[in-house]
Amino acid sequence: MNDKKTIFSAIQPSGTITLGNYLGALKNWVNLQDDYNCIFSVADLHAITVRQDPKTLRKNILQAYALLIACGIDLQKSIFFIQSHVPAHSELAWLLNCYTQFGELSRMTQFKAKSLIHKNDINAGLFTYPCLMAADILLYQSDLVPVGADQKQHLELSRDIALRFNNTYSPTFKIPDPYIAKTGAKIMSLQDPSKKMSKSDANVNAFIGILDDPDVIMKKFKRAVTDSQADVRFAQGKDGVNNLMSIYSCVTGLSYEQIEQQFAGKGYGDFKTCVAQAVIDMLIPIQDEFKHLMKDKAYLEESYRNHAQTAMKISYKTLAKVKRKIGFIS
Ligand code: TYM
User: Fold this and answer.
1) Quick one: CA dihedral 181, 286, 197, 26, positive or negative?
2) Residue whose CB lies within 8 A of the most ligand 1 atoms, among 147, 154, 208, for a mutation test
3) Of the listed 199, 222, 321, 325, which one is catalytic?
4) Who's near 242: CB < 8 A, 6+ residues apart?
């Protein structure tokens, strides 16, 4: 290892990967690869907190792996594996369960929100999910965790769990910091801009899938909810326009002032078309690369197997240390 800091992050392979995932997280992962030791994962163990159809899950895991490479994860620079291939994640998660309080987990807003959606399956995994996430991060002694704003609370809990363990025994885990970008950290639904853009939204017009066809992307943006003012300006109470502006800013690198100038005197129609076109232009090369990668399953398989081996070696060091401190014998 070199003296660069370590980054860990992961994404669930539950359905379509969205523009929110890309702008809030994946794009940053790609940009950080030169300056950090990066470790990324397809968090398939997390996905089963909600019931998954086996055939679809299998497809989604492989697609997520290929899609992230297509987005720019460089297998020469970063370690990129599938979570369930590295057993230390499940094992440390159990151990950390025993250092996490019921009250802490009860306060997680995502648990509360998901329990409302999945009323008939509020399983223990859904409740203890932040312990698995803490295990993911702490196994690699991560310094930084690039995520969207919705994961901040889980990260704070990971830090608390790590501190508690360190204080109970002796320094064992590095305390990770969140890395949340200024723009794009919370891309909102195109249909209800008070809610985050989510791949599990029942309304497909609410989110842009990275693999959506260009004409579908154009249609979804044209239908995006705005307001009745016809004025491209970032301001309170203009959630729909603000969201489109933040998407456009993330994609083009333009500031909000520059965007306001570009669209001064123009209506929302022009604006929406430009945002959609910028997103399409950004996604087309990713989609092409994805199609190309999916034709080479042998390459994907070889890559995720090799990378899991590397992840296993690193993670077992931490796991062994943890077990020793707890008092297990080897
Ligand atoms: P997941 O799969 O829901 O989302 C993956 C990443 O995308 C970000 N994100 C968004 N960012 C901006 N706007 C949005 N609308 C939006 N929706 C999602 C998320 O913040 C996340 O960074 N539990 C995690 C996956 C995970 C993980 C980890 C992350 C498992 N282990 C360890 C960090 C470290 C999750 O469900 O993300």
Assistant:
1) negative
2) 147
3) 199
4) 193, 234, 235
